[in-house]
Amino acid sequence: MEKTVNQKAWFLVLPVLLLVAFSAVIPLMTVVNYSVQDTFGNNQFFWAGLEWFDEMLSSERMWNALSRQLLFSGIILAIEVPLGIFVALNMPKSGFWASVCLVLMSLPLLIPWNVVGTIWQIFGRVDIGLLGRTLAALGIDYNYTQDTFAAWVTIVVMDVWHWTSLVALLAYAGLKSIPDAYYQAAKIDQASRWKVFRYIELPKMMGVLMIAILLRFMDSFMIYTEPFVVTGGGPGNATTLLSIDLVKMALGQFDLGPAAAFSIMYFLVIMLISWVFYTVMTNLDKKGG
């Protein structure tokens, strides 16, 4: 017997599609338009072709910003993923304290990005900040506005404090989904704690961990507010990541053509990385199935 398909459900999706078209597709087409044109002002444009793309690809400034961005994202993942797994493994699995831990782990995620930047900007100040004054009292030369290493440490620690909870909560959800029978079998076989983690917990967490890695990489790759509030991209250009450099180019220098080409390449890199992660996650699901 042939099933009848009701297509009326598409009318429920139509408002969402229109909203996405208005808020995403139209601005994207505007950026594409700017990326292939040039202007001398007075809202008069003329065709420039791929000139801005060639300029950006040969720009040492863009490649330096990209290298800083990749370094930042790599450091973030190398710290937050293992730390999040460690926290999830040591959280209570049930009871009152499990609820308390979940609430406490969720608190940093509720703080707006600009507020996080402001908190750490004040926290790290040598004159009034608790961290800055404490380190100065201990004889440690720390000044994130003048020292490159201190600036990098500050924005990395700030991001770890803000977002490790996300990895921990996702890993915790993966651990909670493991049936008790697996642990009982491991106990009967007298498996060590490392073997339980290696052969039971880690494989079962792999799906949610891939989602956590994807989310954290994408967010760290597009980060702007927190490092901009704390360091403004300084000292010099030491913490000028891709997003900060793009805003400086578009709004600070008002180079609309190069900035538009820059943003399109930025967008394509993010799409490529998202596709790679999606492919890896799909292959893992197939193997798991």
Automatic annotation (TrEMBL):
Primary localization class, coarse: membrane
PROSITE patterns: ABC_TM1 (PS50928)
InterPro entries tied to this protein: MetI-like, MetI-like_sf, Sugar_ABC_transporter
GO cellular component, one term: plasma membrane
GO BP annotations, alphabetical order: transmembrane transport
Keyword list, A-Z: Membrane, Transmembrane, Transmembrane helix, Transport
Localization (cell): Cell membrane
Keyword Metal-binding in record: no
Transmembrane parts of this sequence: 12-36, 70-89, 96-123, 149-175, 196-218, 259-280
Domain ABC transmembrane type-1 intervals: 66-277
Keyword match Transmembrane helix: yes
Protein family: Belongs to the binding-protein-dependent transport system permease family.
Official protein name in the record: ABC transporter permease
